[in-house]
């Protein structure tokens, strides 16, 4: 049963977050990361050519996503959703190891679902 539930969880989580997926923009976090990824694609080096307050893997991943999907906020949201789905998988795998009761395995996922729409673009 647990392996069969993962696609259902992914579909449910996407259905839950897609309505807020592109509703708002966070210029102080999302904008800083997006501009830094553009500068990286332009050949600049973080911490040498420009200041960056986050860990560099963020902009390297976003730069890679920008190369595939084009430079836009949407490509960043695609990357975010990838990690969102990965997080759901990890939470569920941890819950499987902690308890064998299906209802108890759903509690951490429900907590994550309750928190995630307000943070979908981070």
Record keyword descriptors for this entry.
122 residues; mainly alpha; elongated; single chain; 0% strand
Question: How would you characterize the overall build of this protein?
Answer:
This protein is mostly helical. It is 70% helix and 0% strand. It contains 5 helices and no strands. It has helices spanning 2-17, 27-41, 56-69, 73-98, 102-115. α2 (27-41) packs across α3 (56-69), α3 packs across α4 and α4 packs antiparallel against α5. The longest helix has 26 residues, at 73-98. It is elongated. The mean pLDDT is 82.
Mean pLDDT: 82
Q: For the terminal residues, how far apart are their CA atoms?
A: 31 Å
Q: Over the alpha carbons, how many angstroms does the gyration radius reach?
A: 17 Å
Number of strands: 0
Structural class: mainly alpha
Which overall shape is indicated by the principal axes computed on the Cα atoms? Answer: elongated
What is the helix tally?
5
User: What is the share of helical residues?
Assistant: 55-70%
N-to-C order of helices and strands: HHHHH
**Proportion of β residues?**
under 5%
Task: Describe the largest sheet.
Answer: none
Q: Can you tell me the residue ranges where pLDDT is under 50 for at least 5 consecutive residues? A: none
